[in-house]
Amino acid sequence: MSERLASPATCPQAVLKASSTTARRRASFGRRRRGAAVVEFAIVAPIFFLMVFGMIEFGRMVMVHQLLVGAVREGARQAVVDGATAADVELTVRSYLTATSIDGQETQVNVAPDPVGAEKGVAVTVTAAIAFEKVSWLPAPFFLQEVTLNAASTMRHE
Question: pTM of the predicted model, to two decimals?
Fold first, then answer.
């Protein structure tokens, strides 16, 4: 009973006993907590990496679309000049894409109407399309395998 009434200032043994018990509890808690961190990482890491790779692929898709827009704009500029042929326009679009590290041969290019027979003032449209799986850096998931990136540009024949 005297132990209970003793204050820490008057009884240094009580202080030592209390502090060693607290230290043991903390050490035990730290060992148990270490396993929890591994489990938390195992749950969060796949979701985190899925989001990071998804953002990278979305950024790639937007970038390729902008490159297609630039390529068809160059093709349309080529198409509206006198003496241009559909083959010249297709070559311009494919060359533009190849210069930007996209396989121009995989791209479908369409020019309508044919610039050779187009009269002055007639709108000439150049379109290009490429499958997303051909330009993706990662294997395309099942829901993006059918996605095709398209771009079109229309200018008046000079």
Answer: 0.71
